[in-house]
Sequence to fold (238 residues):
Amino acid sequence: MALERVADGVWLLRGDLRGAMNVYFIEDGDGVVQFDAGTKSMRKKTAAAAQELGGLKRIVLGHAHADHRGTAPFLGAPVFCHPDEVDDAGSAKAVTPYFNLSLLEVAPVRWIYPMLLKRWDGGPVKVAGTVAEGDEVAGFRVLHFPGHAPGLIGLWRESDRVALVSDVVYLVDSARLKALPEGEASVPHPAFNWNHQEAKRSLRRLAELEPLVVGTGHDQPLRGEGLRATLEAAAEKY
Fold:
């Protein structure tokens, strides 16, 4: 799919299943930083998009789940993540150990996820360095949002209230593999969370920032003045 401009100097590439997997590019001097790495099938389009935008300087993972690290081993750029994601980033397992797929209510969805995760995964990622709360990435500040993953991070730019947040919030119904109704959002499903209560707290923290743009890990970004209420309601979905 074509690159979409999300905000000043921020671009989105959507791909894979129904275009639901997101990779972001942030202008950084004469090149770009990639935030999140999508799925393995996106590797060629991701490389081409980065080249179109001036060349890839580094990749920053929002977290290390299979559908967010997929392109990282193939792009020839140094990869960074939160210290608490280093072990999972380097693991050969596509199904993250703390996932509890038995919590998924629909049996066929329970059965298909291990296959999907293996299809999406690009394999172990060699981590060149780490980023943590308060660090700067291409004009954004790193925020730690643990819960869905122990080292899940987002990027926040105060000047125009843009948040790139990976899987802090879902715009898809992962328990049924379909989009949520327009205007709705949710905390990630408990089946995929390292700590569900922490995931809810992190989503409430995001709401308190009162962002105007929220670039999520899946589906189109959220936009508007009233996102705080949407995000606060999303924290109560499960």
